[in-house]
Structures are given as structure tokens and as C-alpha cells.
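## tool: complex_structure
## caller: assistant
## args:
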Amino acid sequence: MPEGHTVHRVARQLELDLVGRPLRVTSPQGRFAAGAERLDGQVLAASSAVGKQLFLTFASGDVLRVHLGLYGAWDFYGRLSPLVAGEAAWGSMGAPRLRRAVRMGEDEREQPADEGGLVATLHQAFPPEPVGQVRVRLATSETVADLRGPSACEVLDPAGAEAVLARLGPDPATLTGDDERTAAGREVVRRLRARNVAVGQLLMDQSVVAGVGNIYRAVLLFRARLDPRTPGRDVPERTAAALWTDWAALLADGIADGMIITREDLTPDQRQAARADPTLRHWVYGRAGEPCRVCGTPVVVEDMAARKLYRCPRCQRRPRTRTTTRTRTTRTSTSTSTSTTTRRTTTPR
DNA sequence: AAAACATGCTCAT
DNA sequence: TGAGCCTGTTTTA
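## result:
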């Protein structure tokens, strides 16, 4: 259930509440017993996310790499710091207190108070019994983080972690400052336009740009009004650059919101409604057969890169190509620009 | 009760 | 391109 935004939130939560402390590391399920034993008792030195990869660096230099895959999730219990400054701060109102478990991996949601929710959790013994198949439990005396269903969970040395990083494209959430962001954007544009592969596939390729998943892919392409089947090579430079800046904006929103809401047309009230109602969140994702919110044409779904890809066959166009010039000369980029393509650049909010 | 499905990725062919 | 893996929820029989 996680795309990049989720992993960044997890990294941040772990940073706030577990970094700098010695951790009790166990594998209640048993499938990570050896790794847990190796890490148990070490101080967690750093927590960071790149794309969908989570890296937890321990004092010894050991790095726990976690990838949630399609089904992974973290459950948090106990004392938790508010993730976003200014957020309704249950924890900042005086003494630390217990909180409901928050699942990070799909939409974060609060359990109903009457069954296993707030009241029950408050009076539940701490640490709580593991729920389901818990691969790893990271615990301080106050906070517990349970990892379930990851596709990757392994201990690496620093070189191993570096090797994983080297295979990832830029992630806007890891970049600080305009210069870094601009340079990364140029690199992403280059990687997108270097290949003849469909742009819908390239956006899912973590070595092109990191952290985009199936929902973000669909929405980025819709917001750019770009046909997913367009070869990367034929994506106008401006459009490729817009995909990058839009991704940066959507990711930042996703990290702040804890869920993917990608419609910039919503009023604040509607946006609030969309938090509770998944059918309101997206332009095209998951809406096969339903009318496009812009033009009314039924949304189309088809497989691309082994995943369902949703698009509006009318709003999302293939840009005009300049096939004759491309094969012969290396283009003189200034003269023939994107000129007449009537692409609406929908800026987020 | 069983099957289908899901915001991912790797490996073999 | 397809199978396999990880786990939980929703839909179908």
C-alpha cells in the first residue's frame, strides 16, 4: 500500500521517537531472528528514506534496509511525537501518553474507540501483544514499532546500503535547496527522455525517479495531460520537467497528509471529505468506466508494467512528434520547442 | 469458505 | 512475460 510518501512518514516517525536510543529488537514471527539478535541493544543512529526504501542505521554501522512491497506496514504503539508541526498535538499537551496504534502503510486511520481503540489501548498492557505476523519489533521503553509483511528486511553493511542507493533515481523529498532540486530535475528529465520506453513505465522505474507508485504514476500523467503510452523520447522537455516538479509537490503533500489526494480542484471542505472517502481522491486512479472529471469520457484501464494503469483517453494526449529531425540530426533544442501542444499545466493547489 | 485483489519488486525463462 | 513472494481486506460463490 505504500508509495514514497508513506516511507518518508515512517522514517520521520522512527527518527522522532526511536533515534538516539538503544533499541530492543526482536522478531516475534521468527523470520528475522538472526538479524534481530544482531541489532538488539544497539543505539539507532539514523533513520532515512529514499524512494520506497527505508534505511535504519545503527551505532555499529549496520543498516537495516526495509522495503514494504505491496503489503508491508508499520504499526506504532505507545508514545508518539506528532509528525507535522502544528498538527493536533495529543502528545505535546503535557505528559506523554498512550495513543491508539497508527498503521502506516496504507491510509493511516484510527481504530474505532469501542473495539481495540483508544480506551482499550490505554488500558492495555505495554508493550502490547504483537498482532498478526510481526517480522520485526523495534522498541524503547515508551514506543513500539512493529513491521509486518515487508518484501525486504535485511541487515547491510554501509557499502551494501550504498549499493542499493546507487540504483535509485532522485527523490525530491531527500533534496534540500533549489540547486540540488534543479540538478536532480535535469537528471530525471534526461533519464525520461533517453529511452524509447513508454513514459508510463519509466515513471514506475525506480532508477529513473524514486518513490513513484501506481497511484502517483496515474495521476502525474493525468495532471500533465499526457498519454502514458508516449515513448519517453517523445515527451517534450517542458512536459518532462513538469512531471518532476509536480511529483515533488504531490510527494510533499502526501507526506504531510498521510494519504494520496491528488485533485487540485477540491475546496478545503471537499479535500477534507476526500480524506474519508477514497472515491473522491483521484482524477482517474481506480475509476475505470466512470466519467472523466474533466471531460466526461469514460476512464480507461489497461495493464502497463504488470499493473493497472488508468487514464482518460480524451484528456491525455500524445504530443506531436518531430520524427524527421530526430533520426538524422541531434536536435538544436532551441528552435523547435514545444510550441503548439495545448497542455494545461495544472499546478497543485 | 474461497477467491480475488491491492499504493511492489525480483528472478527465471 | 510470468511466477512467486509478503499479508490483510473485500468480494464472490
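## assistant note: Residues 4-166 of chain A form a domain with the N-terminal domain of MutM-like DNA repair proteins fold (CATH 3.20.190.10). Residues 1-3, 5-6, 52, 67-72, 105-107, 151-152, 204, 206, 213-217, 260, 285, 306-308 of chain A lie near DNA strand B (CB under 10 Å from a C1'). Handing back to user.
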